[in-house]
Structure formats: structure tokens, C-alpha cells
User: What shape does this take?
Amino acid sequence: MKLPGAWHHGPVEQLSDCRVFTVGASAAISPTTGREHTFYRIDSADWVNVIPVTSSGEIVMVRQYRHGKRNLTLEIPGGMVDPGEDPATAAARELLEETGYRGGPPEPFGQVNPNPALFGNVCHTFVIPEVEQVADIQNGPTEETVVEQIPMDRLQGLLAAGEIDHALVHVALYRFLLERGRSDPN
Assistant: This one.
């Protein structure tokens, strides 16, 4: 089987700066036909997702309003990796800011590309065991969140029912359930 070849991209023209991401366009040459086509790409910093597990095996989650969906969501904590920041450091920071919880060292749990057709960044997932509340939530001026502790045996039902519908959260939690099982809280 012959695999598709790599396209050769020209310089990227930035079309829009939307604060948390930029949109750019570049011409690319097909390795098969030699024809030029324009492609669009969304550039963003890497992201982190955190699966915080309490000593009793509950997952600390955040319920918040999301402007894209224009409704409430139930998610694990997460956010953007700041420039120059290590993803594990970002995971611990996001957990503390969004929930007021802190735990053991962040354990890398894989990474995924949010949508390789449009994005070049990755979402790193970390498990943080033995979390406990140590501070108040540190919401910014555009955030309003509530922390919920979800028993691990409820996760699969919440995912299947669509109560948790963020795609990157789905991936992280289903993988967590697959690899760690419902009976092993850490």
C-alpha cells in the first residue's frame, strides 16, 4: 500500500487574531498532482485536560456555561498551556484555579490532536491523584463555575447520556475508564 505524500506548504498568511487562537491560510502543493490549493488552519497554544481523582475515587469536575454551546456543560478541569509553561505545570495550575483542589504530581495520560484537519496543537491529559480542596475557586471575570465530585461508577452513564458532551473530555474519560477501570480510583 502506497501512503499519501506530504504536501509542501508556502508561508502562512494570518487572516484573524481571535485572542485565544489565530486563523491563517497557506497555499500547498499536492505531491500527486502538483496543483496548488489554499488551506486554512487554526493555531492555538497546546491545551491540558485534568482528571482529578479524590482518595475516595470521585472525579472532581466543573459545571460551567460555554458560549459556543450557549449552555451549561459538565467537564473535567482544563485550559491553555501558557507560553513557556510545561504542560504538567499547566495541569496543576488549571486544577487549582478552576476547582481549588491540589493533589499528587500530575501523571501524563496521553495527548490527542483536537482536529487535525484544522488544528496543529495538542491536548495533553494528566491524572492527578489524591486531590483535596485547599483553596477557593479562582474564576476570571468571564468565568462562573461550580465544582462537582462525580463518583467514578457514574461516569459511563453520564458520558452515554450526553450529560458530558465535550469531545476532548469524552476521549480522556473513556480512556481513563478503559485503562484504569471503575474499581481502581488511582
